[in-house]
Amino acid sequence: MAAANPRAPASEPNAAGLLLSHLVTSGTVAKEMLKKKTPPCFVRFSRLQQVTNIQAQIYQTNLEIELLELERDTADVVHPFYLAQKCHALQCMNSHLEAVLKEKRSLRQRLLKPLCQENLPLEAVYHRCMVHLLQLAVTFIEKLETNLETIRNIPHLDANLKEMSKALAKMDILVSDTEELAENILKWREQQKEVSSWIPRILAEEKPHKHGLIAPPSPFTS
pLDDT, tens digit, for every residue of 169-196? Predict the structure, then answer.
């Protein structure tokens, strides 16, 4: 390793060099003392300068990391890759609109022309799908009025629920009354059966008394 040239231009002075030059200028330290072995205090000054430089590098690195994180968070908005995709989509839309404008007259004529009683061309691959689609359309049309009525009744749903609750309460009352009436009818039938069973006995008891009676003489006979 080549020795340092004392006549080479001096590099940028650090804190230790500035302190030494200040001490030499004020006469506190002689130049002969500096030519001797470097004392421990100057070694500490150099280490302190190195620590300061390392801290500055760490701060700069942290700042760059924060900038990279910010760029990552906003990549979906300002990242060139996503911007290129959006530009491509806009270009495709623009080309489609240009094609529509070129065919503006023919498209207007086709829209003005009625399509009633005309057969629209359809590939054979989609015939099965069209059959299924027509079945769904028929089912939808059949249930359309019911679905519309259901949608109209949605705002009145709370009132309908209250009326249904009142009707259910009335039905409960009627059911209880009907059960009570059925019990009374069953009791009445049992009583009627008992009465009907007693009638033959009463009639049987009354017949002997009728046969044992003697008729009084008639006032018209001599």
Answer: 999 999 999 999 999 999 998 888 888 8
Q: How far apart are CA 110 and CA 126, in angstroms?
A: 24
Report d(CA 209, CA 206) in Å as an integer: 6
- Coil, strand or helix: which one is 101? helix
Tell me the three state secondary structure of residue 83.
Answer: helix
Residue 14: left if φ>0, alpha if ψ -120 to 50, beta else—which one?
Answer: beta
Cβ(160)–Cβ(153) below 8 Å? yes
- pLDDT tens by residue, 36-92: 555 566 677 778 888 888 999 999 999 999 988 887 777 666 667 777 888 899 999
Output the six-digit token pair for 192.
């009627």
Q: How many Cα atoms are found within 13 Å in the side-chain-facing hemisphere of 201?
A: 5
